[in-house]
Write a structure and sequence with these properties.
Layout: H1 2-6, E1 27-32, E2 46-54, H2 64-75, E3 83-88, H3 92-100, E4 107-111
The structure holds NADP nicotinamide-adenine-dinucleotide phosphate (NAP).
């Protein structure tokens, strides 16, 4: 909760304590970053013309201008990458085991 607030969230909901689909609030956009909910489960919490999207199965194919835009956001401190753990190539099995637990906080890096 503190990590997510520290990188800019105005409000954080603990999914283990509160079902955000039943809070009565409605949103312009619901973006599922961890593939845990479907569009139909969100139909009552989206505003009219609200958007649902999910990261699931999407392999980003950024264009050069997208990468420059991201670089600028990072340089301005508006996008703050979070690195949880770093493993060497020899430790890659351990790294995968950690990721497979489904609770990494940000990114896990394999150093080559
Ligand atoms: N990482 C990539 O390179 C990549 C690339 C393309 C697509 N994707 C897709 O992106 C999605 C997320 O992958 P990921 O790599 O970011 O990591 P992940 O291991 O799927 O997500 C870890 C995070 O999910 C949270 N979480 C677990 N269960 C949750 C729930 N029921 N509700 C809300 N949050 C929950 C965990 O928080 P707690 O520890 O507090 O439980 C943790 O912060 C996947 O669908 C994956 O297919 C990932």
């Amino acid at each position: 909760m503190e990590l997510v607030k520290s990188i800019g969230a105005d409000k954080v909901i603990d999914y283990t304590k509160e079902d955000f689909t039943k809070s009565g609030e409605v949103y312009d956009i619901v973006f599922d970053a961890v593939y845990m909910i479907s569009k139909s489960q969100c139909k009552n919490i989206l505003k009219e013309n609200g958007i649902f999207d999910s990261s699931h199965g999407k392999i980003p194919q950024p264009k050069e201008k997208d990468l420059v835009f991201l670089k600028e956001l990072i340089e301005k401190g508006k996008l703050k990458p979070v690195i949880d753990k770093t493993y060497t190539m020899e430790q890659i099995v351990e790294g995968h085991r950690y990721v497979d637990k489904g609770h990494k906080k940000g990114h896990v890096i394999i150093k080559i």
